[in-house]
Every structure is written in C-alpha cells, then in structure tokens.
Design goal:
The complex is a heterodimer of chains A (469) and B (203). Chain A contains 17 helices and 19 strands. With 469 residues, chain A is of the alpha/beta class. The model of chain A has no long low-confidence stretch (mean pLDDT 97). Chain B has helices spanning 23-26, 46-54, 86-94, 106-114, 124-136, 164-171, 178-182, 185-194, 196-199, and strands spanning 8-16, 71-74, 98-101, 119-121, 141-145, 150-153, 156-159. Chain B has a single domain, classed as Aconitase, domain 4 (Alpha-Beta Barrel), CATH 3.20.19.10. Chain B is globular, with a radius of gyration of 19 Å. The chains are: A alpha/beta (469), B alpha/beta (203). Chains A and B meet through strand 1, helix 2, helix 3, helix 5 and strand 8 of A and helix 2, helix 3, helix 4, helix 6 and helix 7 of B.
Chain lengths: 469, 203
C-alpha cells in the first residue's frame, strides 16, 4: 500500500501501542544541548536510571555560548555552570560531546546534518523546537520538552500521538532576490501560525526539488513557526550528494546500499495525504515580518495591515502587534530604520547564507548607526567561510565576525538587543522580548535582506538594492 | 511507577486572554539560564507584567484578586514557540493545576501532560463566558472534571475536550510515561536491531 515518508518511518520505529492508545516510538538520534537537559539528567539520577543507548545521543553546546570570547571558563558564571553540567552528564553517561575543542561545535541543528549524523529515514528528537530542521534530509525530526528528554535518555523511546500529513506543493521559479526564507514565511502567513498543529508538513514540488540542502533546512526549520512540529522533504539525489563522504555516513559499498534504503523511505508517488496546499513560488516577493509572530509578515513593497479592515477575530492581535512594534497601520515596512543587523541562527547561519549576505555587502559599508554581526552556525561553517575570504568581506564592511552559537536569535548569551532597538534578523522568531530586550523589536527576513538593511540603515527591497548597484 | 490519578481539579480561575501567547512571553529565555527548574514561577510572564505595570495596568498573574488560582483560562494557540518545558513548569510551580483554553501548541500540550497538568479545550464563546464569570467573581469555584469532560463554574457548565490518550493517562495515573516505555524493553531492542542505521547491516 502506498505510504508517505512519515508513515514509513513511523512504522519502522514503532515498538508497540501503549495502553492509552499512544505509540511507543524508537528514537534513532537524540541530540542534546546545555539548556533543556540538566534537569532531565537529574530526573534520571533521582530514579536511579542510566542512559540506555548512550551512542545514540550526541551533545553540543550552543545557546549560552558567548560568540566573542569563547575561552573557558566563560566570564558568565551561569553559562559556565550550564556547560559544566553538560560536560559532567556526558562524561558520567558515556555521551559524545562536540565542544569548542573538537572543531565541530555549533548550533545543534547545523552540526547534525553537517557531520552526517542526520540521515534519511531516522527519527530524531531534541529538546529544541527547531529540530524540525533535520527533516530537510528526509528524517522525522521534532522538538521535545525536558521530561521527554528524560524518557529518551532512559529508554530511547517516546510516547507519541500519530501525525497527519499535509503536502505543501511549491511550484515555479523563485524571482531574483527571493529565497527559501521568503517561501517559508509565505507558507506561514498563508496557513497561519497554528495551521500546522497536528500535522507534519511535507514540502514538495519542483521549487523544493531544485533547492539545495541548506535551503531545504531553512524551510523545514520554520515548520514549527507554522504550528507543525515536523517538516520534511523526501530524500533525493540532492540529499545523497550532500551526505556522501560526511563523517558519520556509511562509506564505500555501504553508502550505495544506504542510498537504496533511504530512497525506499521516500513517500510513494501515489501516497494519500490528509491535506494538500499549493504555493505559486513565482508570485512570492521578498518578505519581512512586521509583528510579534512569524505569521505577521508582508512583502517588502506591500502596506501593513490595518485592524479596521481585518476580520473581527484578527483585530486585537494586529492592534497589539502594531503598538508593540511602533508601526502605523497601512504604512510601509520599507524605509523602517533599523539599529541592529543579525545574520546567523539555525534558520540562516549556514555557508550559503553567509555567501548571499556577503554578495550584497561586498564593497559597501554598514550604515554608521547600525550594529551588525555575522554569527556562523558552526565552527566548520566559520572555517569554510574564512577559507573563501567571507570574513574579510564582512569585517571590511563593518560587520562583527563572531564564533559559532545561537547568539542573538534568543539572547541567552551576551548578544542581545537593548531597549527598543529594531533588529533586521535572519533568525526565526519575532516574539516580544525574543532577542533579549523585553521591548526590543525583530524584523525577520532573508540574510540578503538583512545585509542590505545593514548597509542602507533601513529596510530596503533587495531587488532594487541590487539593481542600483 | 505508580503515580497520581488525576480525575478532577477544583479551584479558582485565572483568566489570561489573548491568542498566540508564546513561551518566550510565558518565561523569557534569560530565566532558562539555570540547571534546575526551581524558582521559575517568580519569573512567570515577567516582561508582560512589567510592561503592563509601567502602563498603569496589572497582569492577571500579578493581580491579587486571582492569587491562589489553580485553573488557568486561555485562548487560542497558547504556548506556541519554543519547546522549553520551563514554560509549563513555571505555570505549574505558580500553582496552576489545569488549563482550559481554545487550543495549544503540540509541544506545550505534551510537556504539560508529562507534568500532570491537563490542558483541556473548549470553544471561543464558552471561554469568553468563563473569563467573564471569573472576572466578575474571582472567588467563583471552578471544577475541571476529566471523567464527565466538563468544566463548571458555579451554576454554569461547559463541555470540554481532551484527546483520549491524554485523558486515559490522567485517569489511570500513567501520565509519567517513562515506566511504561521501559516495560518490555526487549521489544525496543528488537526494533532498534531491525533498523539498518542502528545495526550497521545495510541490506
């Protein structure tokens, strides 16, 4: 019987039906970091349990890592405590930790694919909602809470509800200046921030098939912003080419065999879906968020919504967002003055993102009133960028060139907004206070748009910006 | 592991209106810089509370008239955003034992089940009425009844919903899943061994 990737992966990992009707699902790869796990290890110890499959859990440190001075001990005592707790827990339980000394440290959702830990057909869990990123390689990957981290440590399993599958068919050529980030922001705007609750999003169609692995990761990363805990792309030649030769990927004959198994896990051509949506990629324009959730976005040349012309149920939300952002109903986002520009995060902190931003700023300079920083998603991304000379381009343009980490995406480290600052950001969330200042404001956009805004000192339309070159 | 059965929760209500209240608002990320969950409740909605106070208003969580409330009333997509269990932990530690809302993010819902804090749903108009009743009379006794699947507020009573799996877990006291997952562990090992990426034998 034809099946979707989700169904096949689910079936291959099902241990049994639990008495309450949930499925006991085996987790193939468990990724952990310093923020959501110390309590889970405590819970484990309190019950006298140990990690059952220590080789299937991989740790790194990302959220609290300072990006300027990464020497130990960290100046920030609390950050040092959290890191030390992770080190201790990993040592006690025999878990591999990729810290700064390994050259492989970075944002957990960047390093998993980078090292080939993430593979098609796997189930992947991590105490972090952006775990959906790994779905770009054809895995079923989702975020979990700390009690569930405890469950995976103790049993390598989770008690799960089945998910429905919505296929999102993206068709057509993207216009110049339009990126995967714009596509996912479009999908979230169209389907809503809670439209995906209960669903896995399968991204398909020729636009997605033409996308690189980095672009697919940007799309899958933000599935959760649309309410979908899981987002994935069926594995194909792009996936296999990406994986070939990576550290944890089978080598030699085994690689060809693995490709066959991975292919067999892709959705069948005639699989049935619970829902299907089509997106015309050619119609998408560069997109910027104006509000306090990622669904509140406009094309850069479109007016902001006005509560008066919105549906009754939307009015309060629009009002609250405009007032927090200090933006006027019906005004244009283009021309909004920015204070900070941030290129980085698990959404857009990969080499291709840095290249796109560098293209825009080459030979230009950051506006005098703008604080601009580039934070590579991992140590290998940083090294690869330096080998290409991207660091010089950024530094010459007036950007700070930093060490790998989550940085200003969520400001659990020294990188944060101050007061009412407005940040043009390549990250994933524009929630109130997200970037570290309770009143700070975030405008989400593609890395190229962030770079252009950094130079202009205000939100610009990348299409015109590059034209006027 | 024998744990507490949760069938019925009684207490006063705490209305917290608004859609899409995200976990960064429930507990801002800077308070996640700790290795335990202790004391999180003191920072529950801290930024929202401060901003409302500065504007001469008061956040329901800080409002003395709702002090001691155990049943939180919310609107749609509550707990969206980050997977941080710190959010339901802060709410639970503040004293909330059940949530009645229009809808929840999946991860928030699952985290709450694992803490033994049921999140039941009802429609927009029932919630509006519940919030209004509690707003008028904060001393009003609410009852969330997971057997009857109703929430009552004084004379009024409303139907609520909860996925059958979560309901079963609360009613038979199996909402802490780890023990169950460790039963019949040989079945887990068999599933693992059949996966080529675990066994290393690619077919």
């Amino acid at each position: 019987m034809p099946a979707t990737l989700l169904q096949k992966v689910w079936d291959a990992h099902t241990v049994r039906k639990l008495p309450n009707g949930q499925t006991q699902l085996f987790i193939g790869l468990h990724l952990i970091h310093e923020v959501t796990t110390p309590q889970a290890f405590d819970m484990l110890r309190a019950r006298g349990w140990h990690v059952r499959f220590p080789e299937r859990t991989i740790a790194t440190v990302d959220h609290i890592v300072p990006t300027r001075d990464q020497r130990r001990p960290f100046l920030d005592v609390m950050a040092e405590d959290m890191f030390s707790a992770l080190e201790r827990n990993c040592r006690d339980e025999g878990i591999r930790l990729f810290d700064m000394t390994t050259g492989s440290q970075g944002i957990v959702h960047v390093i998993g694919p980078e090292m080939g830990l993430t593979q098609p057909g796997m189930t992947i869990a991590c105490g972090d909602s952006h775990t959906s990123t790994h779905g770009a390689l054809g895995a079923v990957a989702f975020g979990i809470g700390t009690s569930q981290v405890r469950d995976v440590l103790a049993s390598q399993c989770l008690a799960m509800e089945p998910l429905r599958v919505r296929r999102i068919l993206v068709r057509g050529r993207l216009a110049r200046g339009v990126y995967a980030k714009d596509v996912i922001l479009e999908i979230i705007r169209r389907l809503g921030v809670k439209g995906g609750v209960g669903y896995a999003y399968e991204y398909a169609g020729d636009t997605v098939e033409r996308m690189s692995m980095d672009e697919r990761m940007t799309m899958c990363n933000m599935s959760i912003e649309g309410g979908a805990r899981v987002g994935y792309v069926n594995p194909d030649q792009v996936t296999f080419d990406y994986l070939r030769g990576r550290r944890f990927v089978p080598q030699g004959d085994d690689f060809e065999k693995a490709c066959r198994w991975w292919s067999s896990m892709a959705s069948d051509a005639n699989a049935g879906y619970d829902d299907e949506v089509e997106i015309d990629a050619a119609a998408i324009r560069p997109t910027v968020t104006w509000g306090i959730n990622p669904g509140q976005s406009v094309y850069v040349d479109e007016p902001l919504p006005s509560p008066a012309s919105a549906a009754q149920s939307e009015r309060a939300g629009i009002d609250e967002a405009l007032s927090f952002m200090g933006l006027a109903a019906g005004s244009r986002i283009r021309g909004t003055r920015i204070d900070v520009a941030f290129v980085g995060s698990c959404t857009n902190g990969r080499l291709s993102d840095l290249r796109e931003a560098a293209k825009v700023i080459r030979g230009r300079h950051v506006a005098p009133h703008v604080r601009a920083l580039v934070v590579p998603g991992s140590q290998p991304v940083r090294l690869a960028a330096e080998r290409e000379g991207l660091d010089r381009i950024f530094i010459d343009a007036g950007f700070d060139w930093r060490g790998a980490g989550c940085s200003m995406c969520l400001a659990m480290n020294p990188d944060k907004l101050e007061g009412r600052e407005i940040c043009a950001s390549s990250s994933n969330r524009n929630f109130k206070g997200r970037q570290g200042s309770p009143t700070g404001r975030t405008l989400l956009m593609s890395p190229a748009m962030v770079a252009a805004a950094a130079v202009a000192g205000e939100v610009v339309d990348i299409r015109e910006f590059v034209n006027g070159d | 592991m024998a744990i507490e059965k949760i069938q019925r929760i009684e207490g006063r209500g705490l209305p917290l209106p608004g859609d899409n209240i995200d976990t960064d608002r429930i507990i801002p990320a800077r308070f996640l810089r700790a290795i335990t969950f202790e004391g999180l409740e003191t920072h529950l909605f801290e930024d929202d509370r401060k901003q409302l106070a500065a504007a001469g208003s008061i956040h329901p969580v800080a409002d003395p008239k709702y002090a001691g409330a155990t049943i939180l009333l919310v609107n749609a997509n509550f707990g969206c955003g980050s997977s941080r269990e710190h959010a339901p932990q802060a709410i639970r530690r503040y004293g909330i034992r059940a949530v009645v809302g229009e809808s929840y993010s999946e991860i928030f819902f699952g985290n709450s089940v694992a803490l033994g804090m049921p999140c039941v749903t009802t429609d927009h108009s029932s919630l509006a009425e519940l919030m209004q009743l509690v707003g008028k009379d904060p001393g009003l006794q609410l009852v969330v009844d997971l057997e009857a699947m109703r929430v009552s507020a004084g004379e009024k009573s409303f139907t609520v919903a909860l996925p059958s799996t979560a309901r079963e877990s609360f009613l038979d006291g199996t909402w802490d899943a780890t023990g169950l997952l460790l039963d019949r562990f040989e079945e887990v090992e068999a599933v693992a061994e059949a996966l080529p990426y675990v066994s290393g034998s690619w077919r």
